[in-house]
Design brief:
Number of helices: 9
Distance between the termini: 28 Å
Number of strands: 2
Radius of gyration: 17 Å
Shape: globular
Strand content: under 5%
Transmembrane segments: 91-112, 118-147
Keywords: Membrane, Transmembrane, Transmembrane helix
Amino acid sequence: MKRKELEVILWSIALPGFGQILNHQIFKGTLFISLEFLINVQSNFNQAIMYSFLGEIQKAIEVTNYQWLLFYPCLYMFAIWDAYKETGRVTSLYTFMPFVFSAYFVTVGLMYSSNLKIFGVLFGPVFLPMLFLIPGISIGLLIKILLGNLKVQK
C-alpha cells in the first residue's frame, strides 16, 4: 500500500468524506460528510460513544436511536472503499469484498448490540459492532482470495 492510499483510508476512517476531498471529489466528499453528520446526530451516536468509553454501556444503549444508526456501517464502509478506489491503485477485481462484508457484519453486530453478551459482557452499540468488524474483514478477505483463485484457474 502506497502513501496516498494509506492517507486516504486513514482520513476516511476519521470521517467519511475526507478521503473523497483528498481525492479532489469535493461534491461527493461534502455529501458523505453531510450524511455522516445527519446519521450521527439523529442516532445520538456521539453520546453513545461517550457513554461507551466511560463504561456506561446501558446508558449508551438507551440513548442510541438504532433506526438511524443502522445506516451508519454501510455509509462508513462505502465511503472508505470509494475513497480508496478513487486513488486509482486498486489492482484486484475483488478488492471491495472486505469492505462489503465488514459493512454486513458491523450492521449485524449493531442489531444485536443491545442484548448480546460475550462471556457475560454486554459490549453495547459501539464496541460490539467493532468486534464484528474482525470476522467481516476476515471473511471478505477469504472470499476475495477464493474468487481471485477461481478467476486464475479458468
